[in-house]
């Protein structure tokens, strides 16, 4: 009974948060026209080498401030992250740096990310720590310490189509 009550309380909290925070993620095809960048929202077709800008808009519609809001942008497998395109975010007097994941969003960290790999050297299997290339990133995240009531923020990053 206690577990069921805790679960329902947790579900109610999630539903309340879902109504309090609206998220909208849209892709934009980035094109150069007469030396200027133009954006095509929700492109129907893309080709290898095309650049997409992913914009996540978050709006706090709750009755108060929200704390520790994680804004996560998944990087589609058909694309790869363009290094340096995820910019720091300024919100409520704080600078929020993007963090990245290379393991499907299980863990996040600030670059340079490291991973352990097994390889054969001189006929022996060894484990080494190597730097993760930005093209291997699977997600980007900004953890906003305080999102004031009524605030609307946008984070973005760019990917290239494989």
Please describe the topology of this protein:
Blueprint: H1 2-20, E1 21-33, E2 36-41, E3 51-60, E4 66-74, E5 79-81, E6 89-91, E7 94-96, E8 99-101, E9 114-121, E10 124-131, E11 139-147, E12 152-161
Antiparallel strand pairs: 1-2, 1-3, 3-12, 4-11, 5-12, 6-7, 8-11, 9-10
Mind explaining what this structure looks like?
With 162 residues, the protein is mostly beta strands. Helix content is 12%, strand content 52%. The protein contains 1 helix and 12 strands. Strands 2-1-3-12-5 form a 5-stranded antiparallel β-sheet. A 3-stranded antiparallel β-sheet has the order 4-11-8, with no helix packed on it. The protein is globular and about 65 Å long. The model has no long low-confidence stretch (mean pLDDT 91).
Q: Give the C-alpha Rg.
A: 19 Å
The gross shape turns out to be globular
Strand proportion, as a percent range, falls in over 45%
Series of H and E elements: HEEEEEEEEEEEE
> How many helices?
1
Total DSSP E strands: 12
Main sheet overview: 5 strands, antiparallel
Q: Would you summarize the structure shown here?
A:
This protein is mainly β and 162 residues long. 12% of the residues lie in helices and 52% in strands.
